[in-house]
Specification:
Length: about 700
């Protein structure tokens, strides 16, 4: 069966906000269509030339003849929803779109259950309009599509024509902002966003002055369907806006200001909708202009809407038979074939999602089928999983062995199959990780992700990578955020660490960061997280933001930032709570940047036992220089008391390669030299032990 879409835009005027639930308090007005049409006329029709739609409506009505309910045609309209998001609550799931389609088609076919509540005075003229909205299954280029697109764009917080340009550029895969794939003469476009210009939604009436690229409906994400974050109260917004899009005005006329006595002289040009001042409450006995008002009309603001009238139906059919704004091309038989909404569903893509991509041994992943269209059979393959195969739509699979695994799905409709394999889709980490102390300097890393670090790149934009600079050595991890145009959030996550061998633990790392402007906004920040349950939950260990975030004294850097020397780095020390001293501790670094932020670098991530009070009282200084070293490296330390020390060097695999010094050392300054002929070129870990406390540092010989 074709998936059918419902549409409804409801906007509330500022003077109505106090009467609405809290959800409506965030919008400036209920329906922004009148303001939008006024803006379009000023921009594209400065001479205010009347478009021909009203004349056409009158002529069509005169020539329509006898119109019988029983033999009317059904007008099918292909529809596409474009979800524009920044990975927040506005990125609503497909199910919300399907629910919105259901409501839209119920309302336009008088199948909505609340028709039983229509008061007797208007029940006889409540119309079965006969419009069906079907999610497109092909775009104008012949590609199979879901009828739902998703675009990452900060313009979702503004919801204007610039946002539509971003959607089109994303769909085109280039800088072309023209609506090539879903033009207005073939599809009704609905752009679902975080904030449609301060309203719950808006659209345009059919007009020859509306630019084709922007002919569609803008809808606030929590007014789309009835599923959370929407609800039944807001679910009729799309019905209202589709009414506008097919040439209906508000019942009180051409304004967005209901409740004014002067509205009695206004008119929506529909004969069976009584003149009214317009309602923002459900007063079913209202007689604002001397006759009973049709308060339950979808083009009202009453929040008890449940009907169109026969006159409104005729006016909408007029619009769909008019060439104005190409509305008469939408429902033609060839266009329905081209859009894939005529005939059987088109099976064209196998796809799926998972609720987790990085887990630990013994944990379960929930897979959700996202194949389209008309899928009736599913054959899954889960190498490394239990069970390893499954034929249900949305299986649950347990992974008991560490590793990286592919997942495959073959979806079918009884006559044909489509398949997909996602390589390295699930990463299973060992329940018992690498034992502490941990020393990570990224000198052996060539790319991210790798066997030790994994990427969380929600927005799909540029993310963490290996940089050819570092505090120690020649490498670190960084985000090339200099050219980022918008708010982005990216994280890199460690493999599991076994911290059970420590009675106390301390994380240290160094970072370098600059901003493009002098004032660093609070939205730009670095967070360090820890998890004691293998990523099922994360706790913030440290957040770095604000005036102290920059490592270059808040000096703006307007070119791509690279730290020039060690003075442009800062060290962060985090003492871990005992709850993290487990066999499977996970560490995550997350950076949130914006268009004004610059590159950030992280190096020398260590997890080890902190120096005890006694050890700190014994060690005055520990210096290693030069580091990296070419010919000779000096290890300098100063002891406040006579004590026993151990100074050893280990390779990257943890093998001891040199016992530099051990035994009793006297109070005072000590310097130990290591020549290049004593160690091969490479990266090592220097372990300095005082009593039962160990301090580790990365060293490099070039």
């Amino acid at each position: 069966m074709k998936k059918i879409l419902p549409f409804f835009f409801i906007f509330l005027a500022a003077n109505l906000l106090a009467q609405l639930p809290e959800q409506h308090q965030t919008i400036k007005h209920f329906c922004g269509t009148d303001q939008y049409m006024e803006q379009l006329n000023k921009t594209y029709n400065p001479l205010n030339i009347q478009h021909p739609e009203e004349t056409f409506s009158k002529e069509f009505l005169q020539n329509m003849g006898s119109y019988r309910q029983g033999d009317r045609m059904i007008y099918v309209i292909p529809i596409v929803f474009h979800i524009v998001h920044i990975n927040g609550v506005e990125n609503i799931p497909d199910e919300n779109i399907y629910d919105a389609v259901r409501i839209l088609n119920e309302d336009f076919n008088k199948l909505n259950p609340d028709t039983v509540n229509i008061i007797p005075a208007f029940k006889s003229i409540a119309a079965n309009v006969g419009f069906e909205f079907r999610l497109a299954q092909k775009d104008a280029l012949g590609n199979c599509v879901k009828g739902i697109t998703r675009t990452y764009s900060t313009e979702t917080e503004v919801g204007t024509q610039a946002m539509v340009d971003d959607v089109n550029r994303n769909l085109n895969g280039n800088n072309n902002a023209n609506n090539i794939r879903f033009p207005r003469n073939k599809y009704l476009n609905v752009w679902v966003c975080k904030d449609p210009n301060g309203a719950a939604g808006y659209t345009n009436l059919p007009s020859s002055f509306v630019p084709a690229n922007y002919d569609g409906i803008w809808l606030k994400y929590n007014y789309c369907g009835s599923l959370p974050p929407s609800n039944t109260t807001t679910s009729r917004a799309l019905t209202h806006e589709v009414g506008h899009w097919i040439n209906l005005r508000h019942t009180w006329g051409n304004s967005n200001t209901p409740g004014l006595s002067s509205n009695c002289t206004g008119d929506d040009n529909v004969t069976d909708t009584p003149n009214t001042i317009g309602w923002t409450t459900c007063n079913l006995n209202g007689t604002s202009c001397s006759s009973l008002d049709n308060v339950q009309n979808y083009m009202e603001y009453s929040y008890c809407s449940n009907m169109f009238t026969e006159g409104q139906k005729t006016r909408m059919i007029n619009a769909l038979n008019s060439g104005t704004a190409q509305r008469n091309q939408l429902w033609q038989a060839q266009n329905l074939i081209d859009a894939g909404v005529s005939g059987p569903d088109i099976l064209c893509a196998a796809d799926f999602t998972a609720n987790k991509f990085i887990i630990c041994e013994g944990q379960t992943v929930n897979f959700t089928d996202a194949s389209y269209h008309g899928v009736t059979t599913w054959n899954w393959s889960f190498p490394g999983g239990t069970p390893s195969t499954d034929n249900t739509q949305n299986p649950q699979i347990t992974y008991n062995t560490a590793g990286t695994y592919n997942v495959s799905l073959t979806a079918g409709n009884g006559s044909q199959n489509v398949s997909i394999t996602k390589n390295a889709y699930i990463t299973v980490l060992p329940a018992n990780g690498q034992p502490a102390p941990i020393v990570e300097g990224f000198e052996l890393a060539t790319a991210l992700p790798n066997n030790y670090w994994f990427i969380e790149n929600i927005d799909g934009q540029g993310t963490w990578d290996i940089a050819n600079t570092g505090y120690t050595g020649n490498k670190s991890v960084y985000i090339n955020n200099f050219s980022s145009p918008s708010l982005t959030t990216d994280a890199f996550i460690s493999n599991t660490y076994d911290l059970t061998g420590l009675t106390a633990a301390q994380i240290t790392f160094k970072y370098a960061y600059a901003h493009k402007v002098a004032t660093v906004p609070s939205s730009v920040r670095l967070r360090v997280y820890g998890s004691f349950n293998c990523g099922q939950t994360w706790s913030t260990l440290r957040q770095i933001s604000g005036a102290t975030f920059s490592t270059v004294n808040n000096t703006p850097v307007t070119t791509a930032f690279t730290p020039a020397n060690q003075s442009e780095w800062k060290e962060i020390v985090i003492n871990l709570n005992s709850m993290y001293l487990i066999p499977g501790f996970l560490l995550k670094f997350e950076f949130q940047g914006d268009a004004q932020s610059n590159n950030i670098y992280i190096d020398d991530i260590n997890i080890q036992a902190p120096l005890s009070v006694d050890a700190e009282e014994t060690i005055n200084t520990l210096l290693v220089y030069p580091n990296p070293a070419e010919e000779q490296m000096n290890i300098s330390f100063s002891l406040l008391h006579n004590t026993i020390i151990s100074l050893k060097i280990f390779d990257q695999l943890g093998k001891e390669v040199m016992n530099v010094a051990s035994g009793s050392y006297s109070q005072g300054q000590h310097i130990i030299n290591i020549n290049k002929n004593e160690l091969s070129r490479g990266i090592y870990h220097l372990q300095f032990k005082v009593g039962d406390v160990t301090k580790t540092q990365k060293i490099v010989f070039n």
